[in-house]
Amino acid sequence: MSMNEENENIYLDLKKKPLESERKEIRQKRKKTILMVVLCVLIFLTGFGIGFFLPRTPNSINYSFTSVLQEIEYILQNRYLYSDQSDEFVAELEDKALKGMTTFEDDPYTYYMSEEELNSFYSGINQSFVGIGIQYTKVSEAALVTKVFFDSPGERAGLKEGDMIIEIDGVSLADKNADEIKELALGEEGSEVRLTVLRDTQTIIIPVIRGTVDYTVLCDQVDDYLYLVIESFGSNTGKEIMNYLDHYSNIKKIIIDVRDNGGGFQSSVSEVCGLFIGNNEVYLQQQDNSGNMFSDLTKCSKTYSFDKIVVLVNQNTASAAEVFAICMKEKCDTATIVGTTTYGKGVIQNTTMLSNGGSLKFTDYYWYSPNGISIHKTGVEPDITVENDEVWTLLYEEMADDETFVKEDVSDVVRLCEKCLKFLGYPVEHTNGYFDESFETIINEYKNKQGMEEDGVLTKDIYEAILSSAVYEMSANESLDAQLVKAKELMK
C-alpha cells in the first residue's frame, strides 16, 4: 500500500476529506517518513546483531474508536492469546470494565453488580433462600458453622454451632470458596443434602431436607422480658417484628440485639424505628452531593410502648443497624445502648438498574442522626461499654493438611489456639503465639479429653477441633457473652 492510499483509508474511516492545509501537512509528514525509512535501513544494517534482543514495537491498529475502552476491547478480542479460552469472553471483558469503572479506593460501597449478584445481594438482606439454614465461615478445608437458625432445616437435622462441614453430597470443600459452598448447600425445596461433619474429632453424616429459610428476626420470651434479634433490615422485617410484639403484647421489657447486623433497606429501618418512637417522627437526616439537607420520617402502622429497652451493638453493627441504634439512643427515653462502638458507616447507597440486567449500587447521601450527628467513620458510642472476649471477633487462620506445630514454634495458628483454649477455661499463660512448655501441657490435656495420644503436637485436626469447641461454647453458654449478661442485668 502506498503512503497516499494509506492516508486516504484513514480519512475514509474518519468520514472526512482533507483540507488543502492538511494536504500540505501530509506532504511534509511524507518527507519526514521517507527520511525515517532511510535511517531505519541504516540502523538495521548496522544493528542487525542486537535487533533480536529488543522488544518489538507494538503494531498500531488502523481503525477508529470512540474511546480507549473500545480500542482495548478490539485488541483483546482479536489479538489476545487466551481470548478463545472462554465462550463468553466479550461478556467477561464488559463485566471487568464495569467493575473497574465503579471501584473507588475511598468508597467500598459503590460497585457494579451483575443480575445474578444483585439477586444474591437482595436475598442476603432478606435472609430468604431454599437451603439448610446456617451461617458459616471457611476455615482451612471446611465450613465452620457459626450459627444454626431457629427452626431451620439444619436445626431440625441436628446441626450445631461449631460443627465443621468437610463434604456436601460427597464433594470435598477443601478447594471451595464461600460462594461455591453456598451453591452446594442450596437446592430445590424438599430435596436431601448429605453433610459430612467433623464434630470434635468424630466424623458423622447428617442428612438435611432443604427447606425455605425466610426470616430476618428471632424472638423469644425470657422471664419477664423479650429477647429480639434482628439479623438484617429486610423488606419484611417490620412485619416480622410486629407479629412477635403482638404475640407477646403483655411484655413491657425488651432486649433488641443488632450485633453483627450489617444493615439493609432504608424503608425497613424507617418502619422498625417507628414501631418504638412513633409514626411521622424524624429518624434520619440526609445530605445530597449539593449539600441539601432533608429529614426522613418514620412510616409504620402501629407503635409499641416498653418500660425498658436495651439495644445491643458491637463493632460489626453497621449502616441501617446504626441508624436504628442512634435513633433509639436519641429519641427513645427508655432505651439504653450496650456493647462496643459500632462500625461507622454514615452514607446511604442507591441501586439503579442497567440495560444489561445488572445494576449500579452507588453512594448517594450522607446520613445524620435525628439530632444532626454524623457517625461516618466514628460509629455510635454505646451508653454502657461492655467488651466481649476477643475470641468473638477473631479472624481464623489457614492451616495446611501436613502442617504441624511443636514446642519452640511461633505462629498465628498457635496464637489463635491459645486464645480459644483460654476462652474455654484452660490455664493458658500467654497468647503471643509462642509454643512453650506450658502450652504443650495444655495441648496434651486437650488431646487426652479427646481420647488421643498426648504427643505435644498441634495438628490440623486438633486446631479445627479447638476452633469448633470455642464457637460451640460461644453459642451454647450465654454466661460467656458479657454484653448479653449486662443487658439481662438491666432487665432486672
What would your notes on this structure say?
This protein is of the alpha+beta class. It has 14 helices and 19 strands. The protein has helices at residues 3-13, 20-51, 68-79, 89-101, 115-126, 153-157, 178-185, 237-247, 266-277, 320-331, 412-423, 437-449, 460-476, 482-491, and strands spanning 111-113, 128-131, 134-139, 142-148, 164-168, 171-172, 192-199, 202-209, 211-214, 217-222, 225-230, 253-257, 282-287, 293-297, 308-313, 335-339, 347-353, 359-368, 384-385. The strands form four sheets. Strands 3, 4, 5, 6, 7 and 8 form a six-stranded antiparallel sheet that branches. A six-stranded mixed sheet has the order 10-11-12-15-16-19, with helices on both faces. Strands 1, 13, 14, 17 and 18 form a five-stranded antiparallel sheet that branches. Helix 9 (266-277) packs parallel to helix 10. The chain is globular, with a radius of gyration of 31 Å. Mean pLDDT is 84; it is low at 1-27 and 29-58.
